[in-house]
Specification:
Blueprint: E1 2-5, E2 8-14, H1 20-27, E3 33-40, E4 47-54, E5 59-64, H2 70-81, E6 87-89, H3 92-100, E7 109-112, H4 113-120, H5 129-137, H6 153-176, H7 180-200, E8 202-203, H8 210-213, E9 223-224, E10 227-229, E11 239-241, E12 263-270, H9 272-280, H10 283-293, E13 295-297, E14 303-305, H11 314-351, E15 356-361, E16 364-369, H12 374-391, E17 399-404
Parallel strand pairs: 2-5, 3-6, 6-7
Antiparallel strand pairs: 1-2, 3-4, 4-5, 8-9, 10-11, 12-16, 12-17, 13-14, 15-16
Helix pairs in contact: 3-7, 4-6, 5-6, 7-11, 9-11, 10-11, 11-12
Length: 415
């Protein structure tokens, strides 16, 4: 296959046995690859069936994973796990789960086009690849490359080429609004943390409260595996589904420590909103600053453009003012919590602790505590949360409360 399709210069074919290592080496010159994974992206039980890789020069390979030779499988696993070759993926978290189902880790993702598009226009409803192509590149995929994951080798290579080209366009747009670092230093690293949290899940008691039994699905490992979302709010606040951890408080009564762990611990910021307001002074100042520059910004410069701030229509203007306040305050809280999660995850791995982060809900973080690690865990969780606040220059540093055991987000507990 060597053709121009819908604006994309597509060259490639199905992988021939034994050629993958040489093909990857030939194209590994520091330029970014596009990657698309086909399969089940569930956190528990997911697996990958096929994938396509497209190099920067437009040459691509379709790979049927069931037909890999041992040499090709070794080359592919090594390339996927190598942080060196930069990779662009659309909606990378399910891809990570699917690959993990085969025992492979995905590193080196420098663009997730869904996350990048959300940062550019956080109120947009659809992050489907084809919709983003139409909006940002004024082109669309043919019908055979859209929809359910049953693609021919040419169709999947075409999708992957589109992801690669779209990533370049979105990179330029993010750079124009000074938001490149928000993707690279926050959203992509926290995506990896969320991927691991979803895969780990949390153990539940054998006796689940009757009123929530119908709302949760317990996997064969005795744990629930929620899905965490980075793109469902305009402010950047994380949400969850299957189940919604913020809105099923009785569910928390069923959470227990898993086998070989001694307990659960919850950490939450104390007076985070107050610290953020101290940073931004007051609501009127937030609104006037947003009106002057045309957008509201969080402490990490997460932007939401609000043209109606200067509207002559009072209703539209007041709605935009409320959105400006939410984008600033709620968005800043989301930034601090995400950076805390990244800090804590890095510390736990650097120390080689068995304790692990399980959940994020309502601004609270929940951990599964390994034997003999509670004090060390609490110390490094506190350090990570404090560093997140001070790193954004908050004038008043928020405190941190710990609870042994559990209670729903926002409820009182033992400090």
């Amino acid at each position: 296959m060597n053709r121009v399709s819908n604006g994309f210069d597509v060259r490639g074919r199905a992988l021939q046995a034994g050629e993958l290592a040489a093909w990857l080496s030939e194209h590994s010159l520091g330029n970014r690859f596009g990657l698309e994974v086909v399969g089940d992206g569930s956190a528990y039980g997911g697996t990958a069936n096929a994938l396509a890789i497209v190099a920067a020069d437009g040459d691509g390979r379709y790979i049927d994973l069931a037909a890999l030779t041992p040499d090709d499988e070794e080359a592919l696993a090594s390339w996927l796990a190598d942080p060196g070759p930069p990779k662009a993926v659309h909606d990378a978290k399910p891809a990570r789960h699917a690959l993990a189902g085969r025992g492979w880790m995905l590193r080196g993702v420098t663009s997730d086009t869904a996350l990048a598009a959300h940062l550019l226009l956080p109120e947009r409803r659809s992050l489907a690849l084809n919709d983003l192509l139409v909006h940002h590149m004024r082109c669309a995929l043919p019908a055979e490359a859209v929809g359910p994951q049953h693609y021919s080798d040419g169709a999947l290579i075409l999708r992957t080429c589109a992801v690669l080209d779209l990533a370049d366009v979105l990179d330029e747009e993010l750079a124009r609004i000074d938001s490149s670092s928000l993707l690279g230093r926050m959203e992509l690293p926290v995506q990896q943390v969320l991927t691991e949290m979803e895969a780990t899940g949390i153990a539940v008691s054998a006796v689940v409260p009757a009123q929530v039994d119908a709302l949760v699905s317990v996997a064969p490992d005795g744990r629930i595996h929620p899905t965490f979302h980075q793109t469902r709010t305009a402010t950047g606040r994380l949400t969850s589904s299957d189940p919604d951890l913020d809105n099923v408080p009785r569910l928390w009564e069923a959470f227990v420590a898993g086998h070989d762990f001694t307990g659960l611990m919850t950490a939450t910021y104390r007076e985070l909103d107050a610290a953020i307001w101290a940073h931004f002074v007051d609501e009127a100042a937030v609104i006037e600053e947003a009106r002057a520059v045309g957008y509201a910004a969080s402490v990490a410069d997460r932007r939401r453009y609000l043209p109606d701030l200067t509207s002559k229509d009072r209703s539209a203007r007041e709605s935009a003012e409320r959105s400006a306040v939410a984008a600033t305050v709620e968005g800043s809280a989301a930034d601090v919590v995400k950076m805390a999660m990244i800090n804590i995850d890095q510390a736990l791995k650097a120390l080689g602790l068995r304790s692990r982060m399980l959940l994020q809900a309502g601004g609270e973080l929940m951990f599964e505590v390994a034997d003999g690690e509670r004090e060390t865990l609490a110390e490094y969780v506190l350090d990570g949360m404090s560093a997140a606040g001070s790193g954004f220059g908050l004038r008043a540093e928020p405190g941190c409360d710990f609870r042994a055991g559990l209670s729903p987000p926002g409820s009182a507990g033992d400090s």
